[in-house]
Amino acid sequence: MVAANVALVRTPELEDGIRAICLALPGATERPSHGAPAFFAGKQFLMLWLDGHHDDDFPHLWCAAPPGAQAELVTSEPDRFFRPPYVGGRGWVGLRLDHAIDWEELAALCEEAFRTVAPKKLIAALDLSRKHKAQ
Q1: 12 phi, psi to nearest 5 deg
Q2: Is pLDDT above 70 for 60?
Q3: The predicted structure's pLDDT at residue 16
Q4: Which fold has domain 6-134?
């Protein structure tokens, strides 16, 4: 049985869902990079490749990750996570999007990518918004 927050998603819904997650983060912006949607919080934190990119001909994203996360994810779930070209050397992680999507996990991954690159004031704004939602 598939959990309620997990679904197979078609490309338009996938793009819209990821966009909504990223742009809900304080100060996050979107602009194209290399012909694909990219999200920034001061620095770039996520790249979306819905039609694949280079040798990876499946929908996926690349996102910033804290130290050690890439190795942990790629080792523990190599069928879903991978070391992306170009940015993999900086610790970024790739996530395949050609399988059932766990939206809560995806939102957590996007938030962690945001926290990895965002200025302290944007992270503080995110923490404050999370605190208010919890009350």
Answers
A1: -60, -40
A2: yes
A3: 93
A4: Aspartate Aminotransferase, domain 1 (3.90.1150)
Residue 50: is its pLDDT beyond 80? no
Contacts of 18-22 with CB under 8 Å at 24 or more apart are 18/46, 18/48, 18/61, 18/106, 18/110, 21/103, 21/106, 21/107, 21/110, 22/46, 22/110, 22/114
d(CA 45, CA 92): 9
Residues in the chain, total: 135
Amino acid sitting at position 62: W
- For residue 50, give every residue at least 6 positions away whose Cβ sits within 8 Å of its Cβ, in sequence order, or none: 11, 14, 15, 36, 37, 59, 97
Question: Is residue 73 within 8 Å of 81, Cβ to Cβ?
Answer: yes
The structure's pTM equals: 0.86
Cα gap 83→87, rounded to integer Å: 8
Taking the domains of the chain in order of start, what are their residue ranges?
6-134
Q: Distance between CA atoms of 79 and 38, rounded to whole angstroms?
A: 24
Residues 6+ apart with CB under 8 A from 110: 18, 21, 22, 25, 39, 45, 46, 63
